Amino acid sequence: MEQTYFRKGFGLKKDLKPLIDAEYQSAMVERIRARGYTDRFGDVTVRLAQEFGFCYGVDRAVDYAYETVHNFPNKRIYLVGEIIHNPHVNQRMRDMGISFIYPDDEGRFDFSTLTDQDVVILPAFGVTTHDFDALRAIGCILVDTTCGSVLHVWKRVESYARDGFTAVIHGKYTHEESRATASQVNKHAGGKYVIVRDMAEAMLLCDYIARRPGHPSREELIERFGAKATAGFDPDVDLEHVGVANQTTMLANESMAIGAKVQEAMVERYGPEEAGEHYRSFGTICSATQERQDAVAAMMQTPPAVMLVIGGYNSSNTNHLAHLCRQHTRTYHVEDASCIDVETGSIRHKPVLDPGASEVVDSAWLPEGPFELGITAGASTPNNKIGEALVRILEIRGIAPELTGRESVPA
Question: For residue range 63-120, what is the model confidence (pLDDT) as tens digits?
Fold first, then answer.
């Protein structure tokens, strides 16, 4: 029987590495990294975070997409959603002939045009159990690039459902990964979940669990979390036994703090000896997310005058990096190098954490005289885009470093 499910690639990584490196690597970035993550260009001192850009899961997803195109040259190839949250990388997927299937406003995908002769790539975020089963039923050839860190969270959430615990997931309920993670409870009859966006939402559940004075009513919780929880969410029943998990790209410290607050609430409600029967928590923090956030925290011990954060505006991990930096220094979150206009010297950027926020344009954003520029990038940002952004900034300052990589490619 012909194999129709692939999760380990096609053995083409070595052959395609020169092509992928040529498209995504940066001589400028490698130069700075080799010099201890700090370099000087004219009167601009550039500091790179010691962890930034593509993580292992993103690297793997991009590799598998390229391998898929080369392995199935005569088949239609589709991608469920976006491979990762980076506009440049997704455009390269389109350039290679991959068609994108986007969800509607409710997060539903229409697979009606697919046949058993088509190849479908599952993104690094994964897909819901419903969508996976639908694609298997069609008989499509599936190439699964779901990140291993995401799969780790899925296993925890599934185990909660198996044992009768409601999964309390720290995440954005409209995000592909959170939808996919929450759907894992469906593998067991009666499985339940509720998604909390931040500590404020988590505390609503904690106050109710602990029956603290002024806690929200049952009806208020049902109204607040109706769209973020399993159908029929009943806090009186569903919050008796909970297990905590998270979307891997959230603020790691906040995820851990939420878990601790839920545990405290259980201790208040049931006492320290019985609380363990009502609460579970396992380590589901993505190491790459943690490392990038830790690297930014280390930089902010002596913050640069200006911090540039590069990555998709719909990239959760990039948004959180920018949020961390804004607490310490003037920070600009740009989606791509093209947000930096060499002719006018201006920058287009997203000024707040809200993923739906509009861009703003600043003209006099670079300090006069010598200054330090810090740079980091989300886990879905390729190094060449980091290099291109830096070159544009240096060009605004009238500095023309010798270029040997793709940074010299014009916009």
Answer: 999 999 999 999 999 999 999 989 999 999 999 999 999 999 888 999 999 999 999 9
How high is the mean pLDDT of the chain? Answer: 94
Has residue 308 been placed in a domain?
yes
User: Cβ distance 379 to 58 under 8 Å?
Assistant: yes
Choose between 153 and 283: higher pLDDT. Answer: 153
Domain boundary among 233, 255, 285: 285
Q: What angle do CA 251, 335, 51 make, to 5 degrees?
A: 50
Residue 34: half-sphere exposure toward Cβ, Cα within 13 Å: 6
Domain count, the chain: 3
Handedness of CA 352, 358, 364, 365 (dihedral sign): positive
Kind of pairing between the strands at 44-48 and 38-41: antiparallel
pTM reported for the whole predicted model: 0.91
For residues 48 and 125, membership in a common domain is answered with no
Q: Which of 67, 82, 177, 388 is catalytic?
A: 177
Q: Residue written as tokens 């966006």?
A: 197
Backbone angles phi, psi at 11, to 5 degrees: 75, 20
Residue 400 has pLDDT above 90, yes or no: no
**177 classed as catalytic:** yes
pLDDT range class, residue 285, cuts 50, 70, 90: confident
Burial class (CB within 10 angstroms; exposed 0-12, middle 13-18, buried 19+) of 238: buried
pLDDT at 266 over 70: yes
Contacts of 119 (CB under 8 A, 6+ apart): 68, 72, 75, 76, 77, 78, 140, 141, 142, 143
The domain in which residue 395 lies consists of 24-55+288-408
Q: CA 374, CA 341: separation in Å to the nearest integer?
A: 19
Inter-residue contact 89 to 83 (CB < 8 Å):
yes
- Burial of 140 by CB count in 10 Å (0-12 exposed, 13-18 middle, 19+ buried)? buried
Domain identity same for 279 and 156: yes
Residues 354 and 26: their CA atoms lie apart, in Å, by 30
